[in-house]
Amino acid sequence: MSITIKDIAALAGVSKTSVSFAFNSPERISAETYERIMTIAREQGYSPDPIARILSNKKTKNIGIVLPQSISVFFQNPYLGELLRGIGSVCDQEGFAVSVLSPFKGIVSQTILNAAVDGILIMGISKDSEVHTTFRQRNMPYVTIDAAEVGDFVNVGIRDAELAKQLMDILLKNGHRKICFCLLQSISSNLQKADTSGTREARLNGLLLSAKEYGLTEEEKKDFYFMNVPATLSDAYDKALSVLKKKDRPTAVFCMADVQAYGFYRAAQVLGLSIPDDLSIVSFDDLPFTETLAPGLTCVHQSAYKKGRIATKLLFKMIAGQECESAVLEANINHRSSVANIS
């Protein structure tokens, strides 16, 4: 027998209205009541079905993409723009709409529970994220993008750890030890809590493996500097300025996204620093705008557009009830002119 909203209300000792508020307008009840209702709902395996509320056939002809950041930041990130272009191209072919889903009050799980969509694409979560449980609870088809780890879910990504190691090898081979690492911001079931995204963790593991294989001592690794850099042009520029203005600035920067690298190119120009003579830079993505950078940026080439298309095609197969497997896309390093040998 299915659990109903009336059952949850009785178990929680609240009204049906309060249960409805917990799932639809949590700001209208106390935090204590919200937690009690949600705990009981999880224990009973209950979640509301917004699709059933909208259409009797439980089809919306709509998929959602859960953002790793706020909507305002999303549209400033060129990588996500390319990804969304790929997603949209497949949805156009299939006659589906795309809903851009921003985490509700920073809580991704709440967004998933309330989304009136047939399936969801979600970026950068780790295999251990609580979000996977929420998807199973909702019985919602989903595909992760850039999870970078093997798990019992479908993911589309690249060989992040291996490629990060290769980029780091380039810097170390050219004598760089004083290196600034620009990390990706992460996504978690609650964005107000710290978490490590699959992609960020994989790339971090790859570059640290390179340092280990090169035999760097703990003393040498003290020159490593790690910082979170939001993937927007303005934030990347501000962060770059703060680093490059330091008297003891790095000789090289390892960026996990091209938009971060762009910030360092711009900051170096403003400060009168030469790339690569004063500062070497490597990066991930090889987005179209990097063609305007001079000297050319040494970076991992991947197609965010293709990644979006493939992930969306897999999601539609899952919506149709078909079995799917994860996809690892081809990516390679484009060697250009942004790294100098200082050894």
Could you describe the 3D structure shown?
The structure is a single chain. The chain is an alpha/beta fold. The protein is 43% helix and 15% strand. It has 3 domains: 1-46, 434 Repressor (Amino-terminal Domain), CATH 1.10.260.40; 55-156 and 305-328, Rossmann fold (3-Layer(aba) Sandwich), CATH 3.40.50.2300; 160-302, Rossmann fold (3-Layer(aba) Sandwich). The chain is built from 14 helices and 12 strands. The strands form 2 sheets. It has a 6-stranded parallel β-sheet, sandwiched between helices. Strands 7-6-8-9-10-12 form a 6-stranded mixed β-sheet, sandwiched between helices. Strand 8, helix 13 (258-270) and strand 9 (280-285) form a beta-alpha-beta unit. Helix 12 (233-244) crosses helix 13. It is elongated and about 70 Å long.
So what's the oligomer here? single chain
Mean pLDDT: 88
Biggest beta sheet summary: 6 strands, parallel
Order of helices and strands: HHHHEHHEHEHEEHEHHEHEHEEHEE
**Shape assignment:** elongated
Report the CATH superfamily of the largest domain: Response regulator
Estimated helix fraction: 40-55%
What gyration radius follows from the Cα positions, in whole Å?
22 Å
Say what the CATH topology of the largest domain is.
Answer: Rossmann fold
CATH architecture of the largest domain: 3-Layer(aba) Sandwich
Number of structurally distinct domains: 3
Q: State the total count of DSSP E strands.
A: 12
CATH class of the largest domain: Alpha Beta
